[in-house]
Every structure is written in C-alpha cells, then in structure tokens.
Sequence to fold (107 residues):
Amino acid sequence: KLAFSGFPILDKDGKLVGIICARDIKFLSDYNVKIKDVMSKNVITATGSISMQAAYKAMIKDKIGKLPIIDKNGIFVIASPTNTIITVIPANTTAVPAVPFAMAIDC
Fold:
C-alpha cells in the first residue's frame, strides 16, 4: 500500500500555487475532482533564511503541518515538516541558533 502525506502544487515556472495534503482528500467522495479544486491555495511560506525558531513559531501559530520554502522569485525550493522542526527544537526552548534550513516534504 502506498501512502502520501502531501505535495506542493507548482505552476509551469516552478512557482508554488498550492499544496495538497492527505487531509484535503481524506473525505472526498468523488476522486475525479481536479486538484485545483481541493488544494489549499493560500499557502503560508518562508524563505531559506528563516531561522528554525521562527519557522517553528510560525507553524505553531498558524497551525500548519509544513512550511514551504520559496526563493525571492516565489520559486518552490522545499517544504519543511512540523515534526522535523519539533525534533530539532524542543517545545520549551528559546535558545535556538538562527540558521537557514531545508527539510524533506511531509504533511
């Protein structure tokens, strides 16, 4: 059995236009629906210069499971999953160095 947790949706130029997660399709009754009709379109993003601490805080504040990283032109670079950031940053700490990061795609 193959499973997925989520995928970024990019336009032909590589710009992030949405994201689709397992929760977006979990209760669909019609799997012939177009991805553009079920994907999340107002995606919260960051640039690669964001610190781990700031990424963690943004994801917790906005209750999101991933934080897509885009470059200055809006081109998708990679997505960072909450569970990976939480592994790096314990919830009760504030002393985290400001370092750029990139994580594997996960929802």
Summary: The first helix runs from residue 22 to 25. The beta strands are 6-10, 16-21, 66-70, 76-81. Residues 1 and 22 are 15 Å apart (CA to CA).
